[in-house]
Predict the structure.
Amino acid sequence: MDFFLQLLINGISIGFLYGLAAMGFVMIFKSSSVLNFAHGEMLALGAYIFLTLVTWAELPVPVAFLVSLLGSFILGFVIERLFLRPLIGEPLIYVIMLTVGLAAMMKGFMLLVWGGNLYIYPDFLPAWLTLDLGNIVVPPVYITAIFTGLVFLVIFGLFFKYSSQGIYMRSVADNQPAAMSLGVHVRRVFALSWAIAALVASMSGIVLGVINGINVHDLSAVGLKVFPVVILGGLDSIGGAIIAALIIGLLETFTGGYISPSLRDVVPYIFLIFILMVRPYGLFGLVEIERV
Amino acid sequence: MEKPFMLQLNNISVVYSDVIQVLKGVSLSVQEGAIVSLLGSNGAGKTTTLKAISGLLKPENGEVTDGTIEFRRSKIQNLSPEAITRMGIIQVLEGRQPFKYLTIEENLRVGTATRWGKPYKNDMELIYNYFPALKKRKKSLAGYCSGGELQMLVMGRALMAHPQLLLLDEPSLGLAPLIVREIFKIIKRINEEQKTTIVLVEQNANMALQIAHYGYVMENGKIVMEGSAADLKENPDVKEFYLGMAASGDKKSYENVKSYKRRKRWL
């Protein structure tokens, strides 16, 4: 029973981290229909920026955290400006191929600067975050993962539902020519969605880095993990992404715990195939509204 | 004294993808506060003319290659749609383009994009006043609304932007005659009450000439005729080719085979 609970908590917190990563991915897809293959790399880069600020620049942790979030936000803007904007109006497949190239470039850059070794952050999470339930002890990082996941989910939910800027972003995703005819600044919306995506990606990259250590290959592989999550959740639903991420996170940890650790990376994909056979739009994807 | 012209197109040419010439020297002027109707068959260049004004040519790879478009004496040809909408020119696209996955209310809120951050609650009430049908459905997704409701929605959405000049592209497309009449009535009311200048592109020449003050007839990317709405209504060619009446003024009868001999005289 204790083992089960331990796995459950691990699964939920890993799930929230995947959810955070997927949130950024969904955001880009929602506003511009672009599948961002460089998402894992954005996530890894966030983790490295934080690492550099904490160990090399020796900034206090909260400052380093805020600075790296701000840095990734700006980085998202820059990426959109330099690489995506010239391709506005071109067929989507070009843009998607560009993100594949971007992924390779960013990975190369990170290997060049930080090398392929495994780094670990200095221990900075306070001990009082530890949840002691008698037989099982939840380490602070898992609590942090769940907490940040929840906070960001609520913030983005409210942002998209009620704020004007969020509604403009959804309108661009929905019908770009119409949004343009009403004066919505479409390029600004794209830039904003890349910036926000980079921010949440680096957020999840930092927390994953605390759990597993920081390594280019491991962290950017999470970018791939995002695919079953978002397809399961429905490509355009942020809430769906979180729930799907929880499912995938739990599936992974339970398979790893009860069956075999080597199966844990495969099972999510198998599950995905079954779900897609039953619900091709994913769990919460928008069903195409057809007026006949 | 003559009222000043709000919008003037001077001999503009529009080319798509650097090769396809759609407009060949179109000139027209719109007076402040008027409803100007643009008539013509499919492919005449009416929609392109509107898009040239609103800046929406650019995303479609079109460009004004010659001539000028002046809005209140400043040149606006080939500006970005963001800049042009902020000057108060809003186009309502052809074929009702709602944001399907947004509710009616959210759709209307997108109309505030040109004046982001300003209060919009009163405008919302104004729109519901013009289009009471929308109020009943404000929480439902636009994708599930009827054609008439959607036409009201896209017009209401444009009004949210406080347009000085409203470009309407075929508001009657695919709607029942009763609803068409209602929509035209509202267009007239908007023009009178909000002092919004309106350029109206229509296939339904009969309805359009009823509410318009002035009209232009386009064909093959050129303006072939212009005049006050009353004059156009009486013009035998317009009657024959756009109002579906024989030159004598009766409803045209297809039993009268000889009618095919009549040619458009302006070509």
Observations:
- The beta strands of chain B are 5-16, 20-31, 35-40, 62-71, 74-75, 89-92, 165-169, 197-202, 214-219, 222-228.
- The first strand of chain B starts at residue 5 and ends at 16.
- The mean pLDDT of chain B is 88.
